[in-house]
Amino acid sequence: MNRETFLELAGQIMTLPTAPYHERFVGDAVAEFAARRPQLVMSSDDFGNLLLLYDGDKEETASGGRRGRRRPRLVVTAHMDHPGMAFAKRLSGPDFLFERLGGVPEDLSRDGKVDIFRLDRPSHQKPIRGRIIACVSPAAGGSEFRIRVGRDDSDEVGPGSFAMLALRPLEARKRRLRARACDDLAGVTAGLCFLDELLSRHSPIRAGLLLTRAEETGLGGMLAAARSGSLDRRALYVNIECSSCRAGAQLGAGPVVRVGDRISLFDPQITGGLVAVAEELTKAAAGADRPFRYQRKLMDGGTCEATVLTRVGYGVGAVALPLKNYHNAGRNGLRPEIIDLDDAVWLVELLVGVALHPAGVTGAFKAAGKEMDRAIGARQREQARRLRRQRSGRPAHP
To answer: pLDDT tens for residues 248-275?
Structure first.
């Protein structure tokens, strides 16, 4: 896995317009990705969430790869939306009311430019340019934006129209990837790269990718999927997010093994397994031209989809890409979100390492635990001998 491979797929996914309840273009691109890979089986639930399953290379499995098939399936999750706005009604002339969907930063958006898209047109359509002229708070709660477009464009806006902040869709500068919607289209890209790596290695293991909708408006897609009973209860889940650097993570220091979020602590065995595999990758790359780095953080600035799975009893861990300009809120105005390309590549390598680990993610945790037990046991024996010699806390007499 390298930057170029990630960037190639990012160009297909992260340039697409999206918003809560308006994820169709991303979903279509994912369907095309799966259609080109017959080893993948894609399905959609009643809520529009997508599930891609890989059941291992049949030839590798037949030649002795059954261990990977007996393990619980490793399912990576990400969400297909980003904060945006959706058509609510026409006001007068070129003015429209758009519902605010997710964390579009109100304080920075006044006079901000937006790009308006239509679901009945191709994904790479030329957007209609508009401008936010007011933020409205209806009595029923929530918030709406009054958006003005050019008079020549006013008849092009209507039901099915949605808007994103008018920022460059995607730009790579050295190690940094700037995008209108890293959160969470970079997570979607990482999940697809994860599956692609398994396919390229003809891996005899079972894996999956769950892509959800409407995360930004209250975790809607994951709540629906988790409570529908359609998810594999035996599977182990790892959620991918792009999480604000304000929670303490650093760009370029590696992906974050996320211990928990603002509400929950995640499964300690899966978290421990992620850390154990990350440590193995770090040691294996020591002295190499290209190192491996990772971070371990709580990341309690918000709530992620892993909490939903935790609350209903699924085994789940989480990883995150450190994110600058979270939800497009820059220091001095609206800005593209930023991730580090090496962080993204290392994240994919970590997920692949977990999937291919001989003992599996929980086995990696148990192996690391046994090593720790041995070290603690040796230390305890040495300390016990000294404590017995110096029971009073005073130096022992000769």
So the answer is: 899 999 999 999 999 999 999 899 999 9
**Rounded to a whole number, what is the distance in angstroms from the first to the last CA of the chain?**
62
Contact (Cβ atoms closer than 8 angstroms) between residue 241 and residue 258: yes
Per-domain boundaries in the chain? 3-82+169-362, 85-165
- Cβ-contact 169, 186 below 8 angstroms: no
Protein fold of 3-82+169-362: Aminopeptidase (3.40.630)
Q: Give the Cα separation of 268 and 271 in Å (integer).
A: 5
Query: For residues 66-81, b (16+ Cβ closer than 10 Å) or e, as one string?
Result: eebeebbbbbbbbbbb
According to DSSP, the residues that pair with 385 across neighbouring strands are: none
Please state, in angstroms and rounded to a whole number, the distance separating the CA atoms of residues 398 and 382.
19
- DSSP letters for 45-106: -TTS-EEEEE---HHHHHTT-HHHHHSPPEEEEEE---SEEEEEEE-STTEEEEEEES---H
Read off the pLDDT band of 289 (50, 70, 90): confident
The more confidently predicted of residues 47 and 140 is 47
Q: Which CATH number fits domain 85-165: 2.60.40, 2.40.10, 1.10.150, 1.10.3470?
A: 2.40.10
Q: Which two tokens stand for residue 48?
A: 């529009």
Strand stretches in 224-383, DSSP E: 236-244, 256-258, 295-297, 315-323, 329-330, 333-334, 337-340
Residue closest to 116 by CA, chosen among 171, 79, 155, 80: 155
